[in-house]
Amino acid sequence: MSDVGVTIKKNEDFSEWYTEVVLKSGLADYAPIKGCMIFREDSYAVWEKIQEVFNRKIRESGHRNVYFPMFIPESFLKKEAEHFAGFVPEVAWVTEGGSTPLEEKLAIRPTSETIIYATFAKWIRSWRDLPIKLNQWCNIVRWETKATKPFLRTREFLWQEGHTAHATEEEADKEVMGILKDYRDLIENYLAIPVLVGVKTESEKFAGALYTTTLEAIMPDGKALQMGTSHNLGQNFARVFEIRFIGEDEKEHHVWQTSWGISTRLIGAMVMVHGDNKGLVLPPRVAPVQVVIVPIPYKAADSSAVLTKAKEIHLKLKERGITVRLDDREEYTPGWKFNQWELKGVPVRIEIGPRDLKQKQITLARRDTYEKIVVKEEQAVNAVENLLLEIQNNLYGKAKRCLEENITAVRSHGEFTETLKNKGGFVKAPWCGSPECEEKIKEETGATIRLRPFEKEESTAPCVCCGKKAEETVYFAKSY
Length: 480
Ligand code: 87F
Prior knowledge:
Number of helices: 14
Bound molecules: ligand 87F
Shape: globular
């Protein structure tokens, strides 16, 4: 790897390209702990944007933020043995305090259902205590054994986890779908990544849930990435943790619960979907810097006039609420700056040189298309504002076309395996509904059922695995 600039082509070695972009753009760095990463300023700023947008949404629907301890007593996880059995190998433990062995070892939270629901049991007595709608932003530890990758799979990551308790099943259903809608809006309209939404199969759902809903996106290498999940937990946890309430009917009931989450993985998805051979391409709505101004003096004599103009534009954009950075560093050339801001994915670059000054104009350069646009100075702010919106829409539109091109409907086993092998992406196929066929296909091709669409689609073709009558059409894909 050379010091500056992306050397690997996105379509030649996607995985290496991703790592190079993430490191060189300054989003992330490796940490001196295996499998862990550092979220540097720019990725943390994107995460804060995600927090801002999502906090606003869930506050409006009556959720409150909280913080529970990161340590979970072993006995709590054991209560839930059935649901957590498969996850146990991934749990990290604290066994000593100082040099004294702990009486009971403590898990470092891999998710917080158990500690939060043990507390719900204490807080909930009557229907008047419901609903409880909590969310927490925190770090999570899962001791991955598979190869790690910044944002996509690390032993520690950041997420939000929502946990709610309701008096009725209908309310829990509504909660699950409301959050799913919020997630979709965040992912599509801010991160500019189109998703498919639906329900997980019995074998793919969270074991503790009645049903699991999911949002799935396609990455440029044809693999699907889960972008978020929202579960209806039914009364499963309520029974284990004895979360009961006296209803309006004066009888005792178990609460109905939901849990849901999105993580810093979304940042990885954003890099993969929008980035190009010069580096990051950030959607304007989440970009930490939306516009960079690079003054271009030809001679020392120009510099003060150019700089004055640059400062003027800088202020006007700021006043309009645009996040703008004036790059007036003298130790770098304009060309060097162009490359750096391109690598960092800043959506719009403004160039101001002596010629622009004379003509009372500025030059705008789009990060998404590299197109340059010259506009009159008095139109600068409106033009920039419109351009940011256009870039946001263009990125979404491009990703949407990519998603559509990556959905292939098939009708036979031959077509199914052929498509997965040669094309990848989502393969829409008829399925009989049996877990055996699902498993067989996974062994044969590595693909899993990513989701069952909410609107059940009947199929005239038979199951792509067993050839028996298909119950529904589902989306298969290989995945991250
Ligand atoms: C790893 C170790 C221990 C996932 C784990 O999806 C437990 C778990 O319960 C575990 N990995 N899960 C499922 C998480 C369920 C649920 N929690 C709240 C979510 C979203 C946020």
